[in-house]
Write a structure and sequence with these properties.
This protein has 153 residues and is mostly helical. The chain has a two-stranded antiparallel sheet with strand order 1-2. A hairpin with a 3-residue loop joins β1 and β2.
């Protein structure tokens, strides 16, 4: 019963977004500088889109996103030659594992088992993957703006 009360209180939390702090993040600076209000509205629209998912689905997406971010940090650390970076083979293993999760739209954890995504989430993941490719691989400026708004949300 205590757990149910706690979960209910989490759902009731009001979010406070510190927009000026977000605008200081290196990767977001140019988008806020070009059109602060427009970029803010784009992020808010993405938050609204995410709010349509259940808490259970959001938890699944959060786990996938955490893996994506970890993979990105691992790759950047290796490319920069950070002293703490993983060796090449481990960096590749991390990348391949996370990319496999994204492509299969299924997470496999030794300690937690398998996490599967329903069709709505699979479509959402596919759209995110396409946006990522357009933004960061194909260098489409509008997609890059949308990608960073989505990622921020």
């Amino acid at each position: 019963m205590v757990m149910l009360e706690y979960e209910f209180k989490i759902m009731e939390l009001k979010r406070t977004i510190h927009w000026t702090k977000l605008a200081e993040i290196q990767e977001l600076k140019e988008f806020f500088a070009e059109d602060f209000q427009g970029f803010q509205q784009l992020i808010e629209a993405q938050i609204e889109e995410l709010s349509k998912f259940s808490d259970e689905d959001l938890a699944k997406l959060a786990k996938l996103r955490a893996l994506e971010v970890t993979n990105g940090c691992t790759q950047w650390g290796f490319r920069r030659g950070d002293p703490e970076c993983l060796p090449l083979e481990s960096t590749r293993k991390c990348m391949n594992m996370v990319m496999g999760f994204i492509k299969r739209k299924q997470l496999d954890f030794p300690s937690a088992g398998q996490i599967e995504f329903n069709e709505e989430l699979k479509t959402f993941i596919d759209l995110g993957r396409k946006l990522y490719k357009d933004a960061l691989k194909n260098h489409v400026k509008a997609s890059e703006r949308q990608f960073y708004a989505s990622s921020t949300a």
